[in-house]
Inverse folding.
């Protein structure tokens, strides 16, 4: 009997079986079910992506494998080159929320100082850590760009867990001084990671990891081009599932393979007439992330004839990676994030995406207390307004449903749609 | 003395890691922004989840409350500062803006990076002034600031002066012409009491000095946390606490440079490298990657100063202090009474509640 992934998630949510989350055997069994098609998903690529995530999570729970917590932007190429398993607590928090298990973890963190004014991705991760559900890693690894919360949360957890905290400081300015600074830190962090993995970094393995990022980058660009066709059936809900691969897959061979497979499958559906038959009445670009628990916000938009055709997070922001210059390429990628430097960079990317995907408007989902994404929103709004691009800000929370007022959001969405119609 | 002529055009700065020596050597007055108590933050162009200090600072500069303000220099010391820079650049018409990154530690790589950022900043500011950056002049200003910081450090050790008075002087230092301030601070430390020092009577401390009775009987408090309004320190002292030391970027931390900084011969290396080394080795803000180091400094000081209670104040949405506060509480709350206050930069709105909580804390310390 085939089971849909959504049905499994609902069952887990109903039975509140979060104890299962910390058993590696559960991940192994789920992998088998995926591989034998007992669990069905709309895309083979998504099944492979889940398989990848389950494999990494299973390894992170097994204490004999070196594993680290890595934040969303840590260069995982270095980890793959040293056979260290990355565990993304942010992506794991999204998974926890998607199966409705986040509340206990949030409460656990709140009982230990952490207030609701803090990012709920990290609050949930801390609660899961304190409760013994997320694995204790060999180190906590973070970069400083885009997210201060991860830096401080990982640092605090490293104090509690008595594990090293490895930090790469990334300046917001892109010039030679910044590049040399980041490169110098990469050189310095390698021996620390070598100690964790108890092996020396082989240049060939690092080059291979960087080559995988480059192939993955090409595959992602290819996928994004396929999605420009209005008939693409790929939904933002499906795209956000790929957060795990995006956060932890850079450097793995699965990255290019899965993104290429996904692009092929979407193209095939379009060619077979299985995609959308009509161009949606209103097309939107979605900025930042979305509520991973069951908020129904995207379905609500669909029910109004509105389709989110692309998300900011799927944008490939970095340039070509050269495996022959692995650390230079990694440093250049770290410095190239459009959402970290001058706000004008982000505005330019939004305008570029709005044009490429022929959208009628732009929606920003503001995750409560994500200061990096929301801090300069007024400037973004003013600049887009001057360009004639309608812009809607929806305040909510990606993980903590208590900060999500569905009635208010629906009213704001309705007004926005009315204005666009 | 020609080089120390009055520095009138102001250049605003917001973070205590800003190299004021470079600014003053270019004949600008480095002027740290402390939003007044009545600064509006509600109409700020910055998101409400950024701290009220940053939103208040934006309003103050945006509403052009400062005479002869020529520009602003900001450091990427936290995300709020990054957004403050974006907002000031977008919504004000000041002729000069500069923004650069502050590294997270005191490693060789960080010193090298920061020294180069200082060079670029000096060039940009000198160019704005229509001059070439002068290293000799910079060394002279480095020396001047070193003298001031030394004087302020000695003042900070003077237990007879109330903390609110010390903090007032430290804040004056951050908005005053350095040469004039050096004269003031030297006069303040001298044998003859200035108007600021005079006590009305032995039991009174209205003008900044404490009587020996008060010193011996009142709870000895260590204050740490985000940048805070002077009013809060005054409130603690008014409610009977003796603040024996602070860890505030608007307070003693701004002058707590290493012993080497005060002792090294000047002019023997690149001035930018000298500044980078010493700013990065200063008592750290918790935004630096320094939790262990900061904890051990703090634990040592608590013992040294025989502290009875610690008051941690953090601005709502100030992540560095909020996160450090958790580690600090875990480490010391079992040993020393610990009060956590969360407020906006202007404490006016919450003054009643703060008064009650601080008074209860003092009462509890008094019973021990």
């Amino acid at each position: 009997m085939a089971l849909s992934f959504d049905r499994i998630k609902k069952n887990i949510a109903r039975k509140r079986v979060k104890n299962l989350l910390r058993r590696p055997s559960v991940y192994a069994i789920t992998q088998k079910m995926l591989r034998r098609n007992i669990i069905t998903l709309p895309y083979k690529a998504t099944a492979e992506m889940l398989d990848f995530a389950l494999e990494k999570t299973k390894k992170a729970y097994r204490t004999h494998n070196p594993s680290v917590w890595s934040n969303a932007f840590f260069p995982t190429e270095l980890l793959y080159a040293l056979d260290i398993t990355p565990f993304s607590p942010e992506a794991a928090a999204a998974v926890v929320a998607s199966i409705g298990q986040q509340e206990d973890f949030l409460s656990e963190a709140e009982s230990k100082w952490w207030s609701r004014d803090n990012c709920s991705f990290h609050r949930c991760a801390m609660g899961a850590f304190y409760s013994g559900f997320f694995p204790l890693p060999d180190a906590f690894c973070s970069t400083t760009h885009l997210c201060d919360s991860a830096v401080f949360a990982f640092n605090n957890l490293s104090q509690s867990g008595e594990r090293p905290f490895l930090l790469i400081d990334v300046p917001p300015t892109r010039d030679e001084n910044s590049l040399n600074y980041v490169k110098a830190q990469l050189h310095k962090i390698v021996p620390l990671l070598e100690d964790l993995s108890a092996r020396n970094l082989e240049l060939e393995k690092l080059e291979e990891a960087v080559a995988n990022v480059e192939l993955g980058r090409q595959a992602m660009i290819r996928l994004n081009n396929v999605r420009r066709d209005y008939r693409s059936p790929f939904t933002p809900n499906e795209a956000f599932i790929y957060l795990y691969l995006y956060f932890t897959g850079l450097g793995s061979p699965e990255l290019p393979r899965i993104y290429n497979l996904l692009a092929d499958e979407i193209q095939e559906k379009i060619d077979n007439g299985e995609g959308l038959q009509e161009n949606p009445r209103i097309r939107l670009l979605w900025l930042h992330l979305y509520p991973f628990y069951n908020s129904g916000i995207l379905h609500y938009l669909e029910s109004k004839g509105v389709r989110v055709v692309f998300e900011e997070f799927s944008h490939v922001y970095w340039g070509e990676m050269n495996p022959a210059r692995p650390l230079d390429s990694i440093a250049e990628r770290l410095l190239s994030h459009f959402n970290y430097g001058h706000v004008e960079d982000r505005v330019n990317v939004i305008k570029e995406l709005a044009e490429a995907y022929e959208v009628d408007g732009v929606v920003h989902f503001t995750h409560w207390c994500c200061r990096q994404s929301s801090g300069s929103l007024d400037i973004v709004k003013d600049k887009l307004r001057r360009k004639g691009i309608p812009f809607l800000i929806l305040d909510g929370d990606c993980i903590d449903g208590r900060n999500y007022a569905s009635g208010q959001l629906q009213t704001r969405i309705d007004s926005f749609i009315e204005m666009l119609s | 003395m020609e080089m120390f002529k009055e520095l009138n055009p102001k250049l605003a700065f917001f973070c205590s890691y800003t190299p004021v020596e470079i600014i003053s050597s270019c004949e600008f007055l480095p002027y740290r922004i402390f939003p007044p108590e009545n600064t509006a933050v509600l109409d700020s162009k910055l998101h409400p989840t950024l701290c009220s200090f940053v939103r208040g600072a934006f309003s103050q500069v945006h509403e052009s409350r400062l005479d002869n303000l020529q520009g602003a220099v900001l450091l990427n010391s936290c995300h709020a500062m990054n957004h403050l820079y974006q907002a000031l650049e977008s919504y004000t018409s000041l002729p000069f803006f500069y923004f650069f990154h502050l590294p997270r530690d005191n490693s060789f790589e960080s010193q090298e990076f920061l020294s180069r950022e200082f060079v670029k900043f000096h060039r940009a500011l000198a160019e704005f002034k229509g001059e070439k950056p002068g290293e000799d002049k910079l060394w002279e200003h480095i020396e001047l600031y070193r003298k001031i910081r030394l004087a302020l450090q000695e003042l900070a050790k003077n237990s007879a002066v109330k903390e609110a008075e010390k903090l007032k002087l430290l804040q004056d230092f951050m908005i005053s012409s350095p040469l004039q301030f050096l004269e003031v601070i030297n006069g303040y430390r001298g044998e003859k009491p200035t108007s600021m020092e005079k006590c009305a009577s032995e039991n009174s401390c209205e003008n900044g000095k404490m009587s020996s009775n008060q010193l011996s009987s009142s709870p000895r408090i260590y204050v740490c946390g985000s940048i805070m309004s002077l009013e809060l320190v005054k409130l603690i002292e008014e409610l009977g606490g003796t603040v024996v030391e602070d860890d505030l970027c608007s307070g003693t931390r701004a002058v707590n440079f290493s012993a080497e900084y005060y002792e090294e011969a000047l002019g023997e290396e690149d001035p930018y490298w000298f500044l980078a080394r010493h700013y990065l080795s200063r008592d750290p803000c918790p935004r630096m990657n320094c939790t262990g180091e900061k904890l051990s400094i703090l634990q040592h000081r608590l013992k040294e100063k025989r502290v009875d209670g610690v008051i941690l104040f953090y601005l709502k949405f100030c992540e560095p202090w909020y996160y450090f506060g958790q580690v600090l509480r875990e480490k010391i709350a079992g040993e020393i009474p610990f009060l956590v206050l969360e407020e906006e930069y202007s404490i006016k709105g919450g003054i009643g509640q703060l008064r009650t909580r601080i008074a209860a804390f003092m009462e509890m310390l008094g019973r021990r």
Remarks:
- Residues 135-157 of chain B form the longest helix (23 residues).
- Residues 1-5, 190-206 of chain B have pLDDT under 50 and may be disordered.
- The first strand of chain B starts at residue 10 and ends at 13.
- Chain B touches chain A through 44 residues (CB under 8 Å).
